[in-house]
Amino acid sequence: MKLNFKLVLLVLTFCCSHFITQAQYITFSHDGIDRQYIYHEPIELDENTPLVFAMHGYTGDAGSMRNYSDMNDLADLYGFAVVYPRGTKDGGGNRFWNVGYDFHPNEDVDDVGFLTELAAYLQVTHGLNPDYTFATGFSNGAEMCYMLACQAYETFKAVAPVAGMILQDILDECDGSTPIPLFEIHGSQDGVTPLSGDPSNQDGWGAYPSIASTIDYFVAKNECTTLVNETLPDTDPSDDSIIVTEKHQNGINNNEVWYYEVVGGGHDWPGAWGNMDIDAGEEAWLFFRMYMDNILSNPNYNSLDKTIRVFPNPVQNMISIENNDPTLAIQDVILYDILGVQIETSLNNGTMDLSNLSSGVYLMTINTSLGVITRRVIKE
Q1: Is 178 exposed, middle or buried (0-12, 13-18, 19+ CB in 10 A)?
Q2: Which residues lie below 8 Å from residue 349, measured CB to CB, with a gap of 6+?
Q3: How many other C-beta atoms are found inside a 10 Å radius of the C-beta of residue 319?
Q4: Cα separations (Å) of 58 from 65, 110, 114, 341?
Q5: What is the pTM of this model?
Q6: Is the dihedral of CA 117, 70, 212, 192 positive or negative?
Q7: Which one-letter DSSP state was computed for residue 302?
Q8: Residue 48, Cβ neighbours under 10 Å: how many?
Q9: Cα–Cα nearest to 65, from 55, 77, 80
C-alpha cells in the first residue's frame, strides 16, 4: 500500500466518520512556536488527579481526537484530567507528531519537549499530580506514545498506543531508557500499519518492526515473567471482529505489557469505528489506573481482580458480586450506562437485579477498603 493512498484513507476516516464540534484551543509557547491544545477536567479535582494526554493521528487534529475518543466523558466518570495537544503542520499542510517519518527529513520540531513541558505547566496550573501522567494516541499519536516511552519516561508513567508502531531508529536508541508499562491495541487487518511491520521501508513511513516483535521488546525490557491470554466477549457480532488479549505481567515495579489484537479489525479506534466490543479510551484509562501509587503501594491490590468476582457476565437478570476475602470490605457498588449516567440499583446480599435494564454494556464501579475496581457488565 503506497503512502498517498494511506493519506487519502486517513483523511476520509477523520472527515467522514465523525461530526466535528467547535474546538476551544488554548495557546502554549514552546521553542518560539505558539502551540495549541484542548483541556478538560472534571468538576471536582483533588491533589491526586491524574493527567492523560490523547494525541491525534497524522492529518488529524486535537478536536477530532476529542470527539471520537470520548475521553471527556471518561474523564468525568473516572476523575482524571485530559489534554488533547495539537501537532504542527508539515510541508504538505498536514498536522503531525515528529517521530521521524522518512518523508519528514527536514522537520525539526521538538514534540517530546513540547509535551513534557506542557505536562509540567498543566500540573502546576491546575493542581494535578505530576506522578500520574499518562499518554494514549491513535496512529501517528500512538507512535508518539512509543517515542515518549523511550525518551520521556521520567514524565510519563505509562502509555497506551492504538494502531501505532515504533520506528526502528527510535527503538535502536531505547535500550538505555527506564522501562514503563505499555498497552497496544492493534487490528489484524490494519492496512496502514500492518502487523507484519515494514522493516525494509516499502511504504515510505520509515523502517519499523512487526507489532509482535515490538511487544516482545517491551516485554523483555520490563522483564515480565507471566503471560495471561483471553478472548474478550464478542458483544457486537456485527462488527466482524473479536479481541484476543495478551497480558504480560509481574515485571519490574509491577509493570505490565498488554497487547489487544483486534482480529478482523483495521486501522481503527475501537469504540468509535471498527470494533465495538471495547472502548479504546476506557481500556487505556483502566490500564493507566493500575499505576497510581496509592493503589500499587498496597500489596493486596494486585489480588483484587481475583478476590472480587462478578458473575454471570453476560447477565440476563441477577448479577452477583462475590468477595472471597473476609478482610476486604466492599463499601459501595455503582452501575453506570455507557454515557456515564448512574443507574438506580441496589445491592442485596451480594446480588443486583438488572432485569429491568435494556440490553447493552454497563460499567460497574466497586469501591473496596483497598481501592476501586471497575467491571464491564454485559446485559443480554
Answers
A1: exposed
A2: none
A3: 25
A4: 11, 16, 17, 33
A5: 0.75
A6: negative
A7: G
A8: 14
A9: 55
Write down the H helix ranges in the chain: 3-16, 62-69, 71-78, 111-126, 140-151, 168-172, 211-221, 280-289, 293-296, 304-307
For 95, left (φ over 0), alpha (ψ -120 to 50), or beta? Answer: beta
Which is nearest to 317 in space by CA: 362, 353, 360, 371?
A: 353
- 125 CB contacts (<8 Å, ≥6 apart)? none
Rounded-to-integer distance, Cα 90 and Cα 108, Å: 10
Grid cell in block for residue 139: 496512529
Give the model confidence (pLDDT) of 87-141 as tens digits.
Answer: 999 999 999 999 999 999 999 999 999 999 999 999 999 999 999 999 999 999 9
Q: What is the b/e burial string over 129-154, where b = at least 16 CB atoms within 10 angstroms of the residue's CB?
A: beebbbbbbbbbbbbbbbbbbbbbbe
Q: What residue ranges define each of the domains in the chain, with the CATH number in brackets?
A: 3-296 (3.40.50.1820), 304-379 (2.60.40)
- Write the single-letter amino acid at 62: A
Spatial contact of 109 and 85, defined as CB atoms under 8 Å apart:
no
Taking CA atoms, 301 is separated from 258, 296, 306, 308, in Å, by 19, 7, 10, 11
C-alpha–C-alpha distance, residues 190 and 185, integer Å: 11
Cell of 328: 476486604
Question: Distance (Å, rounded) from C-alpha 336 to C-alpha 339?
Answer: 8
Burial letters 282-315, b for 16+ CB under 10 A, else e = bbbbbbbbbbbeebeeeeebbebeebbebeebeb
SS3 26: strand
pLDDT for 294-343, tens place per residue? Answer: 443 334 444 555 578 888 888 889 999 888 777 778 888 888 876 667 88
Q: How many residues does the chain have?
A: 380
For residue 366, what is its C-alpha cell? 466497586
DSSP secondary structure of 39-75: EE--S---TT--EEEEE--TT--HHHHHHHH-HHHHH
**Cβ contact 199:208 at 8 Å:** yes
